[in-house]
Amino acid sequence: MDFDFSWLLLGLPIAFVLGWLASRFDLRQLRIENRQAPKAYFRGLNFLLNEQQDQAIDAFIEAVQNDPDTQELHFALGNLFRRRGEYQRAVRVHEHLLGRGDLSRADRDRAQHALAQDFLRAGLLDRAEAALQKLEGTRYENEARLSLLAIYERSREWAQAEDVAQKLDESDQASYGTRRAHHLCEQATERVAAGDLGGAGRLLQQAVALAPEAPRPAIDSATLQLRKGDAAAAFDTLAALSETAPLALPLYAAAMQQAAVASQRSGEALALLQRRYVASPSIDVLEAIIALGGTPALPDDAPSDAAISAQPRDGYIAHLAHHPSLVAASRWLAGERFEHEQFHPQVQRSLDQATRPLMRYRCAACGFEAHQYFWHCPGCQAWDSYPPRRVEEL
Questions:
Q1: pTM score > 0.70 for this model?
Q2: 319: part of which helix (H) or strand (E)?
Q3: Which residue from 130, 151, 303, 361 has the least number of CB within 10 angstroms?
Q4: Distance between CA 109 and CA 106 in Å, rounded?
Q5: Is residue 363 marked as binding?
């Protein structure tokens, strides 16, 4: 059977027309999608500027569906999810980005950093730590180290925290010497609890070398020296500290008094405490003076009615003459005898209850109050944010 070429001549124009129509349809569809994507993007941007985050998310999702290859839309959508507290959706967006093979190195680092932020905000510290460690050597390195430092400090992993702080210190972005000294002091505290006094001493020596003017390494060193029975060395350490950090004296006045009594240097300690009390009166310094059997020295311009007797307890009266204090008044009344002595215990209990909140320390950064002095605030995680004075004296 011979082939009829007339069908071929007829089919070629038909194929051409069908191809042309198909191309026109594809181009039209592409134009429609390209017009829809920018519209959805700008609509989402408008919602975002008007703080309508729900509508903005819907618009960006539409834009991503129309143009799934656009990285910026994915980043915007992931950040919106994170701000909304929808951390699982943010994680999925950023993990999807990291799973793409066509992503540039810069965008991959950016997605890794965004994923780490998702985990941090969600409180998934283990996964955040792993994500942050992958940013070593990238432009997000220092930011990642700061976040790692916060994680290690919050979880009380002091050795890892000190390692990260050392890297930050070596990067010349800021000085982390005092912070590293805190980390070493925390490790020393753990060594003392474990009975390793020698190891604790070596750590404290490193802390003193890192931050020679910071009060904590010296205070912890003196406490360790007292524990070892070397009261003379403890007193020398604290006496030297009173020259470099006199404002922190209320924190170690009691330890100085104990070291002075144990090393038979009460007179030397009393003179030092009285001199510091005149410059900066404090209830803690006052009580150390009274415990040593002395009375607070008065300033040169003290009024004549501020005279006190030789009784150490009357030091509270001298303090009250210049610094009205419910705590000092309660301490003085505790040792006095009155006409209705049978009611004195009830009155004293009431006074003690009233003065207990006044004896707290308060964080200057977040206002967290505690009876114990904290170098690292449990509330806001800030270092050295507690003034060394009680609430009543602020």
A1: yes
A2: helix 315-322
A3: 303
A4: 5
A5: yes
Please write the tens of the pLDDT for every residue from 287-320.
899 888 877 765 554 444 444 445 666 777 777 7
CA dist 60 to 69, 108, 217, Å?
Answer: 13, 21, 53
Residues 6+ apart with CB under 8 A from 303: 321
Question: What is the C-alpha separation between 375 and 200, in angstroms, rounded?
Answer: 18
Burial 61-84 (b: 16+ CB within 10 A, else e): bbbbebbeeebebbbbbbbbbbee
Determine the Cα–Cα distance for residues 171 and 10; give it in Å rounded to an integer. 77
What single-letter amino acid sits at 75? F
185 appears as a binding residue in the annotation: no
pLDDT in tens, 256-283: 999 999 999 999 999 999 999 888 888 8
Q: Report the candidate in 175, 173, 172, 151 with the shortest Cα–Cα distance to residue 161.
A: 151
- Mind listing the pLDDT tens digit for each residue in 175-214? 899 999 999 999 999 999 999 999 999 999 999 999 999 9
Element (H, E) at 369: strand 369-370
pLDDT(387) > 80: yes
Find out whether 206 and 172 touch, Cβ atoms under 8 Å.
Answer: no
Which helix (DSSP H) or strand (DSSP E) does residue 370 occupy?
strand 369-370
Give SS3 for 297. Answer: coil
Query: Is 377 marked within a binding site?
Result: yes
End-to-end CA distance of the chain: 112
Distance, in Å, from the CA atom of 183 to the CA atom of 157, rounded to the nearest integer, reads 9
User: Rounded to the nearest 5°, which phi and psi values hold at 176?
Assistant: -115, 20
CB atoms within 10 A of CB 302: 14
Check the annotation: does 380 bind a ligand: yes
Tell me how many degrees the CA angle 196-197-203 measures, rounded to the nearest 5. Answer: 95
Give ∠ CA 310-312-316 in degrees, rounded to 5: 110
